[in-house]
Amino acid sequence: MNDAELMVLPLVVRIERATPPERTDAMEAAAMAVLSLLDDPGEWVAELHAWEVTGRIRKVVRRARGAEWRRAVALPGRTIEHRTAEVRVHPPVPLDAWPRDLARLQVSGTELTDTAEPGPAVPPTLWENPALAMSAGKAMAQAGHAAQLAWWASDAAERAAWRAAGLAVSVRTAAAAAFEEKVAAGLPVVRDAGFTEIEPGSCTFVAEAPWLYGKVTRS
Q: Where, if anywhere, are coiled coils annotated (predicted)?
C-alpha cells in the first residue's frame, strides 16, 4: 500500500494556555471520541470503512486553542467533553489530504500533566506501559487504539452494556510487572507501528475488562 492510499483519523485536543486539561482526562476523552465514532459513524460510514479496510488504524492528535479550536469545531466532526478535557474527532481523511484548518495545527510536543492522582479505575481500563516515555499527544492516540481494539473484541451484548455506560473508559499507568502479565493474558494489546517517538513493535497499551480476557485481537 502506498501513502496515497493510507487513511488517518484526526483528533484535536483543546489546550488553552490558562486551562489545559489533565493528561488522564485527555487520554480518556480521546478514547471515548474514537469509540463514539465506531459505535455511531453517522454520515461518515464510508470514510470509516475506507480507513478500517486499510488494515491500519492510524490516528494523529493535534492541539488547538482559541480561534484554532473554533475553526476545528466548524469542520465536520464530533466533540467529546470529559471532565477537564475537550477532544474533537473528525472523519478519517487520506494521509496527504487533511482539511487546511486541521493540517495547520501543531502535532508534535503536546505535553500535559495530572495535577492530582486519578481516582479508582472503572473497567474497561486502558493500561499505559510505564516503561515508555510518550508525549501526551502520542499517548492519546495510543489510548484510542486500545479502545478500538477492545471494541472490536467485544460482542454485541458487551458493546450494548458498554454503550449503556456511556462508552466510558479509565486510562491508568500500570505497574511494570502487572503490564507484562496483562500483555500475556490474551487481552487486546497495542503494538506501535513506530512512526513517531518509540520503536516499532513496542507494546504501548493493554485494554482490560472482565469480558476481554482471552480475546487477542489485531493491533
A: none
Give buried/exposed letters for 118-154 (b at 16+ CB in 10 A, else e).
beeeebbbbbbbeebebbbbbbbbbbbbbbbbbbebb
114 to 18, 36, 39, 124: CA distances (angstroms): 15, 24, 29, 20
C-alpha cell at 42: 453517522
Residue 207 β-bridge partners: 126
Which tens digits make up the pLDDT trace of 98-135? 999 999 999 887 899 999 999 899 999 999 999 999 99
Q: For residue 92, is the peptide bond before it cis, meaning its omega torsion is within 30 degrees of 0? A: no
CA–CA separation, 35 and 168 (whole Å): 9
- The structure's pTM equals 0.94
Angle at 15 between CA 9 and CA 20, to 5 degrees: 130
Parallel/antiparallel/unpaired status of strands 78-82 and 189-191: unpaired
